[in-house]
Amino acid sequence: MFLCYLIYLLLQIHLQILLSTSYRMCVKVKKILYFYYSQIIYDK
Fold first, then answer.
1. Residue 11 — pLDDT band, cuts 50, 70, 90?
2. CA–CA separation, 39 vs 19, rounded Å?
3. In angstroms, rounded to a whole number, what is the distance separating the alpha carbons of residues 23 and 29?
4. In angstroms, rounded to a whole number, what is the distance separating the alpha carbons of residues 3 and 8?
5. What is the largest CA-CA distance in the chain?
6. CA end-to-end span of the chain
7. Has residue 41 got a pLDDT over 80?
8. Domain that holds residue 42
9. How many domains are contained in the chain?
10. How many Å apart are CA 32 and CA 5, to the nearest integer?
């Protein structure tokens, strides 16, 4: 029973880390895309 709880906790922590990193990646990609599109618009 204790082992199950430990695995559950580890999974929770892992999910939190995954979510935060994916969120950061999304923000980075958004910034890059925004910059890229603004460059295209300014070039016209």
1. very high
2. 30
3. 10
4. 9
5. 64
6. 64
7. no
8. 1-44
9. 1
10. 41
Helix (H, G, I), strand (E, B) or coil at 8: helix
Residue 10 binned pLDDT confidence (cut-offs 50, 70, 90):
very high
Residue environment code for 17-42, b if the CB has 16+ CB neighbours within 10 A, otherwise e: eeeeeeeeeeeeeeeeeeeeeeeeee
Q: What angle do CA 9, 20, 36 make, to 5 degrees?
A: 160
CA distance 8 to 18: 15
